[in-house]
Amino acid sequence: MDNIIFIGMPAVGKSTIGVVIAKRLGYQFTDTDLLIQEEEGKLLREIIQEKGTEGFLEVEDRVNANVNVSHTVIAPGGSVVYCENAMKHYKEIGKVVYLQASFETINRRLKNAKNRGVVLKDGQTLKDLYDERVKLFEKYADVTVCEDGLPLEDTIQEVLTALGVE
Fold first, then answer.
1. Do 164 and 142 meet the contact criterion of CB atoms below 8 Å apart?
2. What is the value of pTM for the model shown?
3. How far apart, in whole angstroms, are the C-alpha atoms of residue 51 and residue 32?
4. Which of 52, 57, 80, 94 yields a CA-CA distance of 20 to 30 A from 119?
């Protein structure tokens, strides 16, 4: 297992959990939303405003498909599962871990999806987005960890156990 890639909805804790797991395993940590912002010189929401949803996804696919790391925990944005090149690449370079949480949990944690740079199509609700993405998360996941009702430390332990490293 060279890399660990977290997928899941926004606010599921990909970055938070990813940083802790990277520290515990002595891995690097990469948040690809930050790579996208760095490469484009703009915030995610600005890229979405300027290029639209499809344009943003093209940028996201390109940046994620070009992540060339080893012994790294990678936290891509939730919309990466729409990016076939990126997901194919991630399946080749590591284990894909789906951090699963119920819609109710996500809805409670996510105060303002637009300000967070969440890719919503016109007229699409957060529930629509959740239902659409869950199928993709399940399709790409090598490992699924349900975090509903778990404190952060327990979720981290569940991930490590599921990966067979603790």
1. no
2. 0.92
3. 18
4. 94
Average pLDDT for 78-106:
95
Query: How many angstroms separate the CA atoms of 91 and 94, rounded?
Result: 6
Residue 115 has pLDDT above 70, yes or no: no
Sheet with 28-31, edge to edge strand ranges: 28-31, 72-75, 3-7, 94-100, 143-146
Give the rounded distance of the alpha carbon of 134 from its chain centre. 12
Structure tokens given for 82: 């729409």
Alpha carbon distance 165, 156 (integer Å): 11
- Is residue 88 exposed (0-12), middle (13-18) or buried (19+ Cβ within 10 Å)? exposed
At 97 the three-state DSSP class reads strand
What is the rounded distance in angstroms from the CA atom of residue 118 to the CA atom of residue 153? 26
